[in-house]
Amino acid sequence: MELLPADGVLSWVRDSSGLVGWGCAARLDVSGRDRFSQADAWWRELCHQFEVEDSVGLPGCGPVAFASLAFADEPGDSVLIVPEVIIGQRDGVRWITTIGDGSAEPQQPEPVHPPGTVSYSDGQLSATGYRQSVAEAVRRMRETGDLDKIVLSHDLLASTSEPLDTRYLLHNLAARYPTCWTFAVDGLVGATPELLLERMGYEVRSRVLAGTVWPRGGHTAEQLAAELLASAKNRSEHAYAAESLAVRLRPFCSDLTVPDEPEVIRLRNVLHLATNVEGKLSESNATTGPATLLRMVAAVHPTAAVGGTPTDDAVLAIDELEGMDRGRYAGPVGWLDGSGNGEFAIALRCAQVEATATPGVGAGRGGGKVRLFAGCGIVPDSDPDLEVAEAEAKLLPIREALEGVR
User: Are strands 263-266 and 271-281 parallel, antiparallel or unpaired?
Assistant: First the structure.
């Protein structure tokens, strides 16, 4: 980690495998409803311009773009960054990819610095405001029946007494959540448990999460898992999410497998219901067009896991009830290579770093600022107080990473 530069780190790591990069060989900033198609066209055109020498031949070799796309059509800025240097590891094989002359090496690597004292304050939507938004959503769903589910979020601001080193967050998140995808793209840093889409050749898969319980005094992990599987509220919420993903992905596939029953995954802070969806892509499809990864991501985003059901109505209600700009929180984040492979997760358990360490400036020269996010799926029988508690549990990964909890 200390070999990476303190500024502009790009990361996608899970179980010690993945990609990290630095430097910027190319960058696209885009926004609006057409952000996915614009990004797809830009990346494909850029790949045509590369002359590639690849003796490894694994997914993630050759040119790679790290991507983080906004949750909403408006507002929200999305970004694709092609680093000048990429270090990769997969299946026990390590490699280095350089673009250009490969001169974008870290200059005089500095030790990773802790952020000092961390203090918190309300974001655009406080916990109290979040409870009110949840209560209003529940009232509307019970009275009108127009929505089956809506996913509402709120934010929390953190200030650090020392300059914030992104590498410090990444190291702590990867150590505590090795089975999550630890990412950093243009200041958005997190460890997400939810895989939106992975494409490797003609194989595609997704891990849908919805339905949550969190540790409470006197309850074992086994008891919590049994409680989660027996919960009609959580099972219903999960079914919406899994079905919404499958319906939108199926047109791209000649075969798609969706298990009848979810499983439980256990993290340090919460337990989730999970469904692993796997498919084989069609050779061609006149309706969907080429099954590029970004085209498929555009088709499935937002799933019911981060939007709601019906999705279009839920997204409109989110904008009204939250009253905040999510930015790239809950949007797709990941990477794609020049061969069409890649992985995109949903940007959860994350924070937007708004002020960070200044390269060449030692600790003690000003602090950092971070905006944390967390959200929950709301259905007609949701309890606002429990949803606030669940959101607080989902803020723990970033809070503990900032505070250096081991």
Answer: antiparallel
In the set 84, 110, 149, 343, the catalytic residue is 149
* Active-site residue, from 194, 322, 343, 387: 194
Of residues 400, 394, 399, the one with CA closest to residue 130:
394
Gap between the Cα atoms of 87 and 80, Å rounded? 18
Query: One digit per residue, pLDDT tens: the chain, 406 residues?
Result: 556 777 789 999 999 899 999 999 999 999 999 999 999 999 999 999 998 888 898 999 999 999 999 999 987 799 999 999 999 999 899 999 999 865 655 556 678 889 999 999 999 999 999 999 999 999 999 999 899 999 999 999 999 999 999 999 999 999 999 999 999 999 999 999 999 999 999 999 999 999 999 987 778 889 999 999 999 999 988 998 899 899 999 999 999 999 999 999 999 889 999 999 999 999 766 556 678 999 999 999 999 889 999 989 999 999 999 999 999 999 999 999 999 999 999 999 999 998 665 544 444 457 899 999 999 999 999 999 999 999 999 999 999 999 998 7
CA-atom Rg of the chain in angstroms: 21
Q: How many residues does the chain have?
A: 406
Show the domains of the chain with their CATH numbers: 10-403 (3.60.120.10)
3-state SS class at 365: coil
Residue 279 forms beta bridges with which residues? 204, 256
* Neighbouring-strand partners of residue 182: 13, 191
149 is catalytic: yes
Q: Is 42 helix (H, G, I), strand (E, B) or coil?
A: helix
Say if CB 134 and CB 378 are below 8 A apart: yes
**pTM for the full predicted model:** 0.93
Residue 280 a catalytic site member: no
